[in-house]
Design a protein that fits this description.
Structural class of chain A: alpha/beta
CATH architecture of chain A: 3-Layer(bba) Sandwich
Strand order of the largest sheet of chain A: 1-12-11-3-7-9-10-2
CATH topology of the largest domain in chain B: Aconitase, domain 3
CATH topology of chain A: Glucose Oxidase, domain 1
Oligomer: heterodimer
Radius of gyration of chain B: 22 Å
Strand content of chain A: 35-45%
Largest interface: A-B, 35 and 39 residues
CATH class of the largest domain in chain B: Alpha Beta
Strand order of the largest sheet of chain B: 13-12-11-14-15
Distance between the termini of chain B: 54 Å
CATH superfamily of chain A: Phosphohistidine domain
Chain lengths: 147, 431
């Protein structure tokens, strides 16, 4: 029996929201994220009741999500994640709002939006993702084990 | 982003380091949004207070309130000296009621630090409204007025009910706007983004504030951050919903979703007709709200609740109007809060003063409840000791409090809540 580990790489192009280069494991949710009352900056985890990522930390991850919702405390809560060392490594999202734009700016993690392919369809949790926000390029590497 | 000469001069330091940092943040933020320019504003609602232990420690380590403002209101890496604000600015709600610190379990040194911060804030010309509802205490934008407000429930009220123009700003962008009188010209500042996207048709009439909250919570989850146009059963609202109803409605819609603007045909200023509310847009979706949706929403809002013994009843999210305090007093008259339960009601400072004058504070206190200001339990994370089950008349609070405090929450009418406070048991049900 042969076991081979193959890697595939997918490339997405988007618009820069916040510049910089970062990489990390993808954490994906198809639900929007609330800032104040939706995350706990001490752990970088989602706390919203009924959210699929409840209890999961995005610290150091490339957070892939549709966008922001909820209170205007969004930017402040993500600002706090930067100060507390629990910020995501990068943010990839589809829906531009003032909450997420300001939140991304003050988190200072590389961030992109406006993609040529839907990152919610293309990327999976656990993929390795390299974000070059200056050039608007996202490289997604997936390991798949075939027998 | 294009800056005019005045804006460039601010960025280049003409008006000092703090204004330059403010302009630098507005440029980064505007470019992140893809805004083409800034717009003048002379109405800002934001928060600059340091009412959490984290903020206090930050201030003590990094250089006082200037350090707090530099980091949390300007996103500046260096501490800059904060000048008086340039435009009319109102302070929003904060982390506790400094006049009720003991009851809220706030340490004396945190209160003392807050008092210094409050003096700093007032000294720079920020009005100490200390409420999530600035429109209840004298900051009432006019139609078309460009504002820079944070607090999602206030934003949706400003845009939808008053016809003011604001996006949901944050602590950092409102700090920058206070010092510059500028905010990115994007989103709800532009006509085309204020038009309706979704049609919501009502199959039932809505009367109480409670019912408006159910509609708001249901609608927000479905339309998220888009612009719903609500049409009454038969095309016309029999009674125009008043301030307390729309305060609850908008707060609910901006909690389950991100609604920053809605239209009620025949009621709100930019929706005299369905056609004008959509302004040429074709509705992307048509939604209907009837008995089944109403029941499903009530179930969802009560999904965290199991135990009927109620430890704590909180009213005043968003901050209660004087009308709501009066109604609560009528419901409380001749009754006492149960020994196993507590009743806290939150309102703006200015309305608390009116309630004192009207004798309402005494009625509430005589019944064993407390009328407090400046905050709420979700903001302060303060509840009566040992609270496991709360009862709330706010859909917004029923959304947030279980997530933030890990408690069970019942959602019902104000009468259900007062009854729970006085009996210690939840007997609310959907009529």
């Amino acid at each position: 029996m042969n076991t081979t580990t193959a890697t595939t790489t997918i490339v997405l192009h988007g618009h820069k929201v916040v510049g910089g280069i970062a990489e990390g494991e993808a954490l994906l949710t198809t639900e929007r994220i609330s800032g104040w009352g939706g995350i706990d900056p001490r752990t970088g985890s989602v706390i919203e009741t009924r959210h699929p990522l409840r209890g999961v930390s995005f610290a150091g991850k490339v957070l892939v999500f549709p966008g922001a919702k909820g209170s205007s405390g969004w930017s402040n809560q993500f600002h706090m994640t930067r100060l507390m060392g629990t910020a995501p490594a990068a943010m990839l999202f589809n829906e531009m709002t003032t909450k997420i734009a300001l939140g991304a700016v003050v988190t200072r993690a590389p961030a992109l939006t406006g993609f040529d392919q839907d990152p919610l369809q293309v990327i999976r949790t656990g993929d390795w993702v390299r974000v070059d926000a200056e050039r608007g390029i996202v490289e997604v590497t997936r390991r798949s084990t075939d027998e | 982003m294009r800056l005019n000469d005045d804006e460039k001069a601010m960025l280049d330091g003409r008006d000092g380091a703090a204004v330059s940092k403010a302009m630098d943040l507005l440029v980064r933020y505007g470019e992140a949004l893809g805004a083409e320019r800034l717009v003048d504003t002379r109405n800002v609602c934001g928060t600059v207070s340091a009412s959490t232990p984290f903020m206090r420690d930050f201030a003590l380590q990094k250089g006082g309130m200037d350090a707090v403002f530099s980091e949390f209101n300007l996103d500046s890496d260096t501490v800059v000296e904060v000048p008086p604000v340039k435009v009319y600015s109102t302070h929003l709600q904060l982390g506790f009621d400094p006049n009720e610190a003991q009851r809220m379990g706030i340490a004396e040194e945190v209160v003392q630090f807050y008092r210094k911060g409050e003096a700093f804030t007032a000294g720079r010309g920020v009005q100490l409204g200390n409420t999530c509802t600035p429109y209840q205490v004298g900051n009432v934008p006019t139609r078309g007025e460009h504002c820079a407000w944070m607090e999602s429930s206030a934003v949706v009220y400003c845009n939808s009910v008053l016809g003011g123009r604001t996006n949901t700003e944050g602590r950092e962008s409102t700090g920058a706007a206070m010092l510059t009188g500028k905010i990115p010209y994007w989103g709800y500042h532009l006509d085309e983004n204020r038009r309706g996207t979704h049609l919501v048709e009502l199959d039932i009439d809505l009367e109480s504030t409670f019912e408006w909250g159910l509609l708001g919570y249901w609608m927000g989850e479905l339309v998220q951050e888009r612009v719903p146009v609500v049409v009454a059963r038969g095309g016309r609202f029999l009674k125009a919903p008043n301030l307390q109803r729309l305060k609850h409605f908008g707060a609910a819609a901006s909690s389950s979703g991100g609604v920053e603007m809605y239209h009620l045909v025949g009621v709100t200023p930019e929706a005299p007709t369905v056609e004008e509310a959509f302004g040429g847009n074709r509705p992307v979706q048509r939604l209907r709200f009837g008995e089944a949706e109403r029941r499903a929403t009530w179930d969802k809002l009560n999904s965290t609740a199991r135990d009927r013994e109620v430890d704590y009843v909180m009213l005043g999210c968003p901050h209660y109007s004087i009308e709501q305090i009066w109604e609560a007093c009528q419901l409380l008259q001749g009754r006492k809060v149960h020994e196993n339960s507590s009743l806290w009601i939150f309102t703006p400072r200015a309305i608390k003063a009116l309630a004192d004058q009207n004798g309402y504070t005494k009625i509430i206190e005589d019944a064993g409840g407390h009328l407090m200001s400046d905050t709420c339990s979700a903001m302060s994370r303060a509840m009566p000791q040992g609270t496991k089950v709360a009862a709330l008349d706010s859909a917004k609070h029923a959304h947030y409090l279980p997530a933030i405090m890990g408690v069970q929450a019942w959602f019902g009418t104000t009468a259900d809540c007062i009854d729970a406070a006085c009996t210690g048991r939840w007997n609310g049900r959907l009529a």
